[in-house]
């Protein structure tokens, strides 16, 4: 169950359209390390997670990622809403425009459509949490790359910087979740037993 | 915010809700991995109360930001749908 709040997690008020930046930032909507993959990864992984605290981390971070998805979509929308036909033709945005006009559609900056192979839900607590930590770092790197591209527009820079900072906090939380899982396993061999599948001894 | 001085009362309250809710989100995630930290729980509860108060005030003065606050809206129309959406810079 979810409740919607009619506001953004961090304000986005972009004055100047820029199709080139929109196409790059769209990757954090539906690209390989984007927010759609992030939210679906965590929200999918939680069902077979046997430890309540860890299922809580997956639920609450997965929910926050939905708010990030909305911020990224808003950034792309505001960068494209007042584009002229001439800007679309000059900026290389025509390939996106021909299929989606200025609607929001999940794909990578290079044009590859979103695909659930962008994330994994392995049904193994250690595997999934390592994936989650790696995912947060990959998204952080992508935001670092975007920050270099948007350095001249403070309206875009500020919300991207906020999103980057959240990746680091989530990396920390998933690290703690991994530790909670490992503390419940056999310290001589964490892999002797998959707590999401093998029957619990206690 | 750099332009704090230029904000209207509505923009200021909207901004404050964002700041308060950031604490709620951050503390919720922290408590998931630190579920016995009582001090953190009290801190979160304080901000949850502040948020509810601010959300209710916003609904009464301007427009509801969640369905549970729509009851405080006195203008006689379904403002949830008729006021701008967040991606349009609405608040």
Please characterize this protein's 3D structure.
The complex is a heterodimer of chains A (202) and B (91). Chain A has helices at residues 19-25, 27-30, 35-45, 52-80, 85-90, 94-100, 125-149, 154-183. With 202 residues, chain A is mainly α. Chain A has a single domain (19-192), classed as Ferritin (Up-down Bundle), CATH 1.20.1260.10. The radius of gyration of chain A is 19 Å and the shape is elongated. Chain B has 91 residues and is mainly alpha-helical. Chain B has helices at residues 9-33, 38-61, 79-82. In chain B, α1 packs antiparallel against α2.
Task: State the major sheet of chain B.
Answer: none
CATH architecture name of chain A: Up-down Bundle
How many distinct helices of chain A?
8
Into how many domains do the coordinates of chain A divide? 1
How many individual helices of chain B?
3
| Percent of residues in helices of chain A | 55-70%
Backbone structural class of chain B: mainly alpha
Radius of gyration of chain B, taken over Cα atoms and rounded to an integer in Å = 15 Å
What is the fold named in CATH at topology level of chain A?
Ferritin
Give the overall form of chain A. elongated
What is the number of strand segments of chain B?
0
- Terminal CA distance of chain B reads 16 Å
**Share of β-strand residues of chain B:** under 5%
Query: What's the multimeric state?
Result: heterodimer
Using the coordinates above, name the CATH class of chain A: Mainly Alpha
Mean pLDDT of chain B, to the nearest integer, reads: 91
């Amino acid at each position: 169950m979810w409740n919607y709040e009619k506001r953004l997690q961090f304000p986005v008020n972009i004055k100047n359209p820029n199709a080139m930046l929109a196409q790059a930032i769209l990757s954090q909507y539906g690209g390989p390390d984007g927010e759609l993959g992030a939210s679906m990864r965590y929200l999918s992984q939680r069902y077979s997670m046997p430890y309540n605290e860890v299922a809580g981390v997956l639920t609450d971070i997965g929910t926050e990622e939905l708010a990030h998805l909305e911020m990224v979509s808003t950034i792309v929308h505001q960068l494209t809403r007042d584009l002229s036909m001439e800007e679309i033709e000059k900026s290389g945005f025509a390939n996106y425009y021909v299929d989606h006009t200025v609607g929001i559609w999940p794909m990578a900056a290079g044009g590859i459509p979103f695909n659930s192979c962008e994330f994994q839900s392995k049904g193994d607590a250690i595997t999934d949490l390592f994936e989650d930590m790696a995912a947060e770092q990959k998204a952080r790197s992508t935001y670092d790359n975007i920050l270099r591209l948007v350095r001249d527009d403070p309206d875009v820079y500020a919300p991207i910087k906020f999103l980057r900072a959240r990746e680091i906090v989530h990396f920390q939380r998933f690290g703690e979740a991994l530790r909670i899982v490992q503390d419940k396993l056999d310290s001589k061999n964490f892999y002797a037993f998959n707590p999401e599948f093998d029957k619990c001894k206690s | 915010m750099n332009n704090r001085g230029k904000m209207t009362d509505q923009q200021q309250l909207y901004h404050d809700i964002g700041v308060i809710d950031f604490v709620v989100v951050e503390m919720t995630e922290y408590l998931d991995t630190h579920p016995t930290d009582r001090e953190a729980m009290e801190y979160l509860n304080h901000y949850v109360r502040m948020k509810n108060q601010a959300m209710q005030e916003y609904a009464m003065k301007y427009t509801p930001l969640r369905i549970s606050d729509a009851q405080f809206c006195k203008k006689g129309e379904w403002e949830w749908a008729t006021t701008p959406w967040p991606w349009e810079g609405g608040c």
